[in-house]
Amino acid sequence: MDQQSQFFDITVDGQSVTVRSGQPLPEALDAAGVYMPHLCYHPSLGPIQTCDTCMVEVDGNLVRGCAVTVKPGMEIGLNVDEAESARLEAINRVTSNHDLYCSVCDNNNGDCAVHNTVRDMHVPGQHYEYRGKPYDKDYSNPFYIYDPDQCILCGRCVEACQNLQVNETLSIDWSRERPRVIWDEDVAIEDSSCVSCGHCVTVCPCNALMEKTAIGKVGPMTALSPQNRDGYRKLGRAAIDVVKTAEHTTGFGPIFAVSEVDAAMRETELKRTKTVCTYCGVGCSFEMWTRERELLKVQPVHEAPANQISTCIKGKFGWGHINSEQRLTKPLIRENGAFREAEWDEAYALIARRFNEIRDAHGPDALAYIASSKCTNEEGYLMQKLARAVMGTNNIDNCSRYCQAPATEGLWRTVGYGADTGSIADMEAADLLLIVGANTAESHPVIATRFKRAAKLHGQKHIVADLRKNELAQRADLHLEPAPATDMIWMNAISKYLIDNGYHAEAYIREHVDHFDDFKASLEDFTFEFAIERCGISRETLQKTADMIVEADTICGVWAMGVTQHSMGSDTATALCNLLLVTGNMGRFGSGGYPMRGHNNVQGASDFGNMPDRFPGYEFVSDDAVRQRYEKAWGVELSTNKGLNNHEMVHNIHDGDLKSLYVVGEDMSIVDSDALNVQAAFEKLEFFVVQDMFFSRTCEFADVVLPAGPSVEKEGTFTNTERRIQRIYQVFPPLGDSKPDWLILTELAKYLGHDWGYTHPSQIMHEAAGLAPMFAGVHYDRLAGFNSLQWPVAADGTDMPDLYPELKFHFDNGQAKFHPVSWTEPTDQVDDEYDLHLNNGRLLEHFHEGNMTDETDGIIYKIPHGFVEVSPELAEERGLESGAVVRLKSRRGAIKVAVEVTDRVQGKQMYMPMHGKKNIEAINVLTSFEADKDTDTPAYKELAVNMQVLEDHGRAPLKPNNQRNKKRHPTSGVQVNQKWERDDYKRPPKMRPTGSGL
User: Fold this and answer.
1) Are 750 and 349 in contact (CB under 8 A)?
2) Percentage of the chain with pLDDT > 90?
3) Is residue 83 within a helix (H) or strand (E), and if so which, with residue range?
């Protein structure tokens, strides 16, 4: 639409009001400064139509305003008698369901919709007597409570659970005499299918759903709250009753005046700070509500660009690491085989002296550096600057080598940029998602909500290829279960079938893709017969896969570590990109390739130059003109030597060529494959520096440990999986003597003779944006608040949500390229001795090994330790039950782990979450040092083991009430018609009968 047609006028109570086309009436009037009451409406949920407080006349008809979309010429009657009477009746019904004790309520912070609506509508007092409901408060979940007495039955929580998160746990039982929200078939929260995502708590318009971390702590009098089990709730209840008795005489006015003063007092102590989640690569942003150094709650907002109001258990509740007693707060120096605390000056001086001694004796390439995917873009930029400009080496890498390098390689080969081709919005809009080797619901849960929502509400189709029956596989239209490491074969077979039968996008390929003939020839051996034989997929399944692809107008390919962590990971990623090109699904809205980035800033760590061969913005170190640009800016001569990646570094330590290592925020000794081999390498280092929040397994091998801080103790930017750059703001000061990573690197550089002079991360970004054309227009002012930019960003601030507008790909001629790949057999295959295949990956509740999530008590309560999933048929064969303890042995090591028997795995396929920091429980004691032939990404997923039963029974690792063992209860949403059909419901403005359950 052009600007003129976007806006038009409507009439509100006889006055002309300008609105934007397509807006819901509540948002249109709010934007125009016109107040229309509403309670159940939420911009992220849309009209629910349960509360009736938004009744208005539209063109002479009394309707619920939340369900109205503005149209030209529309006449709205707000201040007309019938509408006002209807709204008053509606809010009176609400207050009969909600005990207004605002001054002792932790939700009285200016955004309680019930409080604000009663206040703004000038409701004089309690019209219908408040009657508590005959249900107990539910405290069973470790993170939040449900208080039925305070619930107004607006249905927001149900709509969020059913149709936004799509976990499909909550509903309202309208059949009861006193309706209430229920979990599944009316069980305690902790006994339900609830995944503790927090959506319901976020959207609740009052205190019916509350974070436990906030209860009794937000306001000066909230220790008196009836919801506070540990406070003075009996005294509080008595005080409330006294006030309620007076309220009958005074009305709401004086009582609300006190609560307004109370809310204002809270603002002097309560701090709300925008930040970005520090777990996976979705890039969820939200406000953190804090009081002094206490985190009260995480509150996502509709304006958040990647997630809006969505969170997962970790982003909403998993922040125990911030104030953990296990945090490092002083530098540590190894002396006589033990660590002692030191001051920063001593630690810096020792590091500088030893780095210089090693460089002088063995050359700069005897030292190497590992940047953190948990750190900011600015800190990543400084890490590679330290390696290159200060120490003179290109030995710099980051953990994308462990997961995403093959995905990047596949995209580089075919379309030019090594990143998501579009945005989360493209994936939501696609007709078909082809999800390969990605457990999205557990690894990237907020993006998975978009997938589930698109399928449930808009008919999106899903093909999931995975060894396990994960949640998206259970929900999928088609689940492929190929033999381990064979995805390339069936994808190439589908490409061949489409081409051979004329189903390929011929015109698109002719006009936009090079090397078609070579690619077609390379597919000769990839027949359906070969795929059936090697992948173990039936002809019918292959045919259905091809048919669904042909029928879809737009397709997005989504993949993760199930594709990349193989010895042919780059080629498998390339095969998927080739398939998308065959079908014309690169460069159009609702199409493209989307590798799910694992860590919060694993994209940014590579973007800003933490790679052995590339500067920030992916410009090559070997390019003379590029290198000279950096030499001029940094005032040094830069090395042209080929740098080592982190996989090669381990080899070179064993060979004696690499003498020193500096690792920031990466527990390499337990996350690298073949962990015992890596630990043996670390023991050979002459000098080892580790910078981290906790004394990790890797710290045990260090000579110096530097205490760094989490994301909430610094400022900077992160880049999410869709290339979206977002600012983080400092929430808390550093704990003890710990420091932000950017400050540590700046101060260390000074000790090494390079005074960078940075006093704020914005200066670092300004420097990076001035040197890397990809980030030319990235400026903190443009990232203020919830604003974001998706790279590349032009100097004028124009960004590119779509990497390939007008189908211009990132090669010199603007054409995409088919890249032929050939089949190679996976490594570490099963045999008579090692007869079981062990898959591995993430767990919803924990992040990787648990270095952060292990510090949140509620998460440990849910999942206390790791486990291995064993199929029912394998369990029967080996005489196993859930809780049995087994020894798993590979060709490299052995671990001990508890068994969980589940049909999520089949046959001799097993699955083990990565959770575990000790050698006796860590999956990477088993994995091999074999790696992708093109990128050196370890082949974590190629793993053969044998099993020895140590204990044939014990406590099951997953409790019987774990959400994985529960059946979900999908509905269309709130099912508000069931409310309207009740005998005691009368459409406003008619008065409600006395004694109504509503």
Assistant:
1) no
2) 91
3) helix 81-96
